[in-house]
Amino acid sequence: MDALQGMRFLTSSSSKVLGSSAAFHLELDQSSRMQSVDLEMSSALSTFNSVRWWYHKEECFSKCVAKTSRTLQRRIKETYLNSSQRLDHLNPPHRLKVRANAVVQKGMSTLDQGEIHVKSTRTKFLQNDVGPNLTVLEAQARVCTGPTQTRPLDEAQAYNVLDAILKTVRGELPDEEKVSEAQMGAFFGAMTLRANAFPRETQWSEGERKALTEMWPYLYEKLPREVLFLADPEGTIMGGLSPVGPTFVGSRDADVRLVGALREILVGEHLGFEEVVMLLKDVLPRRGPEEGSLVEVSDALLAAFMICQRMNIETDRELKAYCMAFDNELGPLAVADVKSLTHYGEPYDGNTRFFRSTLFVAAVRASYGESCLIHGVNCMPPKKGVTEEQMLKLMGAATTLSPKAAVQLIEDQDIGFAYISQREARPSLYSLVDLREHIKKRPPIATTEKVQHYIKATGREAMMASFYHEGYEDPILMLIRRRGVDAGLVIKGEEGALSLTTKEQSPDAVVKGRPLNYCAGFRPQKIATEQCRNPDGLLREAFALEVKARDYGIAPTSTPRTDRSVKKNLELGLAALRGEKGPAYDRIILNAAVADHLLGCNGAEDPIAAAERAKEAIDSGKALNAVLKYIECSQHVVS
User: Fold this and answer.
1) What global pTM score does this model have?
2) CA 151 to chain centre
3) What's the rounded Cα separation, in Å, for the pair 378 and 430?
4) N or C: where does the chain have the smaller number of CB atoms within 10 Å of the terminal CB?
5) Which residues pair with residue 456 across a beta bridge?
6) Residue 197: which of 263, 273, 255, 245 has the closest Cα?
7) What are 109-164's pLDDT values in tens digits?
């Protein structure tokens, strides 16, 4: 029923786009015995008639929709036979009356105030599965960050944090309010790094020093040995009151290598490529408390390792190790036989404020032969915002595709794009999802997971990744080059994502770091010279610029807000793909055209021509058709 209900949501959410004043509502006034059956029948019939009327009106009733319609008809007939009910009394969709909560179905993701809540029974990948404590999370947001961004705690804040930790180790808090060992490791690791290696302005405040001096004797009696080590590895920070640190080697075999690495990291030193790779392979994947209690590294040590490497500002060697450590986790790369493939590296933690356009941009570009691969997760800390996986789930598409299954959709000329979840393609990296919630700030993997290479193309390849903090654009481009692709692009879009805005920048705006819509990258450049070393006559051309919508023939418009609503994000995207003009439509056009033009795609040498091609893909219905067929076919390739 996933595809059926997804199609029903799609047609229902697009009712405004159809230009009809009709409401798509289900009258649930049947007898209690037949209520659920009638709901299912009405839903199926409504979907079938809506899609048929919709496409007939625009004279593009494609084979995809015809096939989907036959599937729905078959489902209606089966329900009809099982219920001994006649369908004659059901009105066409423009006469049905709707109730707003009809999208909620048993066994499905539920929609509550615009946000998806997916019931999950998976094992948590933590040894100490309590908390996280909100007071300590707030403190981590201040102190578990870089040398210039850290904001020291005042005396009251420091006392509150240490009091929560002390009450936790004394057993005075319920599990949901306890400070987890991962939180303790991240917090004390950060405090140690700040004391040893940070500038004076972001070292300990007088309030932090006073609170720790007063409360440390009590904490020392109760804290786990791993946390005591992180708080004072060399016995020099707490005034000689912590003899555990200098002799600590770990409580488990898996701890030993990590403890050695932390001794370097906590004084501001860096690790080599091979050292980081071996460490990651030692500790990942995480197995959770039942399977890994005797062999896994402690939550506290791993949390400190992850966040303190980020606070140290990773070197290119360290980032490369995080990026490529698990490249062969599932064996050789799956290969897609396509002339062009673009890999989209969005922030895995999603958008919380503005329209996330990449799913719809991928459908647009795929409809004229620029195949696309999107990857991500359902929900990721710290933002836990709107993601492509959430949108696809709500539409009824499968989100458990393996790379080989995704290849089938990419090679389908009527689809041309696919989504892969980190859960399926990099289980080792995905096993850090719970730890990432407890360390609060983004670890190095938050940067490098955007540059994963899940599928290889027989033709030309390009890779795109977003950035926010100045200084990460060059390292990310370095990682993209390491992937051996033909073209690469880094973008500072809204919320640090890939979505460029059509909003015009105010001349008086204060810009921290790179401006919004900043892009940098490389692309092939064809040259005619006998001295060219490359047999195909290709050289890389580097570029950096600030994209302006006017250069693509698009007038400035305001940015559509979605404010964590998956439903709103889908409604905006589907309306735009249906041809409804407005800010979302313009944003999709701009992002498709910029990708084509800056990556050096054929037919996009002129930015205005690139934008016109994207508009034609939408206005002809090709992009929307690709989305509809993806919903149906994604279920088939995983079944």
Assistant:
1) 0.82
2) 27
3) 11
4) C
5) 335
6) 263
7) 333 433 444 434 455 788 888 999 999 999 999 999 999 999 999 999 999 999 99
